[in-house]
Amino acid sequence: MTMRGAVSRRSFTAGLAAAGLAGGAAAPARAQRAKYRLRYGTAFPADHPGAVRIREAAEAIAKATNGEVDLQVYPNSQLGGEADMFSQVRSGALDFMSTSGVNQTIVPVGGINAVAFAFDDYAKVWAAMDGALGAHVRAQFAKVGLHVFDRMLDNGFRNITTATKAVTGPDDLKGLKIRVPGHQLWVTMFGALGAAPTPINFGELYAALQTRIVDGQENPLALISSAKLYEVQKHVALTGHIWDGHHIFTNAKRWAAMPEPIRAAVTQALSDAALKEREDILRLNEELVATITKAGVAFGRPDKQPFREVLRKAGFYADWKGKFGPEPWALLETYAGPL
What we know:
Layout: H1 6-13, H2 16-19, H3 28-33, E1 36-41, H4 49-64, E2 69-74, H5 82-91, E3 96-99, H6 122-129, H7 132-142, E4 146-148, E5 153-162, E6 177-180, H8 184-192, E7 196-199, H9 205-210, E8 216-219, H10 221-226, E9 235-251, H11 252-257, H12 260-294, E10 298-300, H13 305-313, H14 316-324, H15 326-336
Parallel strand pairs: 1-2, 1-3, 6-7, 6-8, 9-10
Antiparallel strand pairs: 3-9, 4-9, 5-8, 5-9
Helix pairs in contact: 1-12, 4-12, 6-15
Pfam family, one: DctP
Family: Belongs to the bacterial solute-binding protein 7 family.
InterPro entries: DctP_fam, TAT_signal, TRAP_DctP, TRAP_DctP_sf
């Protein structure tokens, strides 16, 4: 998959080839002299900022460690789906990966950032995830043998796209066959809103939309663009219903076995990459509204409050408060306000 248009190319990939950042793996010469040969897997497309900035981090790590560390980056789910890569990291077969939803099967509170309509803006998102809520979540992953880096990657606020009928309010979702990731937060949210949520792997999504297996889907604008979903969808509702971020994971035992200077260099580079990637997504989201509109797609900005009211009446928030527990829910509401 490639990001279409001059915006993404200029912003994220111009000059990367010359800098040695555009390839999926490190240069052979660097790999040969490296003492630590590490692999990083991601489902992000190769030219998504979430992959581009990690490749940039790999170069920074090599430089900071005098070539001792060769971090090879594999985008586009080259090493398997997110669930597969997450399992590989847990077992120590894969060194690093980033994901959002699949980790909830191991640590349910790992998905608390995705509570529907919890965050109104990025100021609240980063206050929470770089603050006490994020620290609580990371501590739960540590209990199951995973080291999670402090800075999350931004996957963006998720928005609804449809092929024919625009979504202007919750009534428009009734009966809509909408593709969702196979995570209970998504499934229960859209079920409570009256839709027919259908889990489909992201790699199969374009074909599912094209053949009308589903009528709509929901993703951040950067993924709607990079996967060219706008080619088979004609309406985007900027619902921002879920903020979706990627934790960066590694196996805690393998991580602890690395020398402290190596860990420090990797941590610094991945932190810098995450902060730059956040800026990329923010800028890209603003630009992509214009870019996708030019492709013939209509945008709408539904009022979020009616969606919240339907979810509240359906017991969605009460149910998930019970599942996550009072402590993390209180932390969430510290930043998001009462739900």
